[in-house]
Amino acid sequence: MAQTSEAPQDLELRPGTGRGVAGYFRVAQTVAGTWWLIDPAGRPFFLRAVNEVRGTDGSPHDPVARLRSWGFNALGAGAGVPLREEGLPWVGTVDFCSTGRLIHLAGARLPDVYDPEWPNAAANRAGEVCLPWCERRDLIGWVTDDNPGWAQPGPAGRPALLQICLSLEPNFAAYHAAWEFVLALHGGQLEAMAKAWGHPAIKNKEVVRELTRTEQGITSRGYLRDDARWSQEFARRYFALAAAAIRAHDPHHLVLGCRFGARPGAAVLAQCALPAVDVPWIDLDDLALVPAGPVLAGDFTWVDPRFFGAPGARRARGLTAVERMLRRGRTVLERAARQSAVVGYAWSHWQDGTGEQPPFARGLVHLNDAEAREHTELLADINARLPALRPSASPVSP
Hints:
The protein is α/β, with parallel strands linked by helices and 398 residues long. Helix content is 32%, strand content 13%. The chain contains 12 helices and 15 strands. It has helices at residues 63-69, 118-129, 161-166, 173-184, 190-196, 205-213, 221-249, 266-269, 305-308, 312-316, 321-337, 373-389, and strands at residues 19-20, 26-29, 35-38, 44-45, 47-50, 74-75, 90-93, 102-105, 108-111, 139-143, 149-150, 254-255, 281-282, 295-300, 342-347. Strands 6-5-15-14-13 form a 5-stranded parallel beta sheet, with helices on one face. A 4-stranded antiparallel beta sheet has the order 1-2-3-4, with no helix packed on it. Helix 2 crosses helix 7 and helix 11 (321-337) runs parallel beside helix 12. The radius of gyration is 22 Å and the shape is globular. The chain starts with 18 loop residues before the first strand and ends in a 9-residue tail after the last helix.
């Protein structure tokens, strides 16, 4: 696995900060306070990856060669398995949602982690997926799931996770666990719960189920407080059991948490941390919500209204939407590299999605296999400079 050094190779590590196993990808903090991924040879490594990389039938282009030409040094989540043999480090996905009972209702998509059979199902899944790769030195670490649904409260007022679990069929263990949990907060009384939620119409459990069926989210302050507690407990159980299943079959590689897809909220992110998760895979906007430690910006893209939906002052300066998008995106990515906790990033998508229109499409490759130069030329320039933007590193010994 040929790589070039990205920082002084004699970095002085702060004792007790290492996560992972020497000889494989791991993370550690320098005495200056900067976190780095450390590659199997003991060299600092700032991850620059792309998710969902696939070869295209009939394409004359080698996707790995393209990645290298744009300054990327790894395959992100969701890459085609054959590409793992092309010499780039890669991120694996376990996909725990594919095993055991699945909560799939009103925006939630999560395994029923309260099912007594789920730990065994998770262990079997990790054995199938992780065990065959557990000795590979080019594997960076494991993402537990790709784009599950945590159903966190949002401005649309849709049902959130606690309400959804309270609305499941009684044959779900999470249904019984949720009702036991929430009633315990209110002296075991449904009437007290309804009063605390400011929702006196909840006379029985069926009322909650009907609200969920019609996608009417409970949004009172009392409910949101209970939902945050439940989400945190659910996440704690999910990450603990998933990490235990992975490590039982692969003790060598990092656990990278969940590829959330949508922002999961502070309650969930609080549990996406040690001891279960080594390096959380997060949105940069959630950096302040994660406990102190290393993080990966796992689904970065500047194709987002927050980058090109500029205020009037910017428009008055004559910048087009594309110019605003690229300028702001570059600024955010460079600022991320200067954050001592950020150990790398992954661009969100290899290829444009169906219906996306360039230049406001997320892929680095268009649907016709043409290079998305509006992104790749700027990314190549940024990628070449990112490691040098890291906070000054004093000399980490492996």
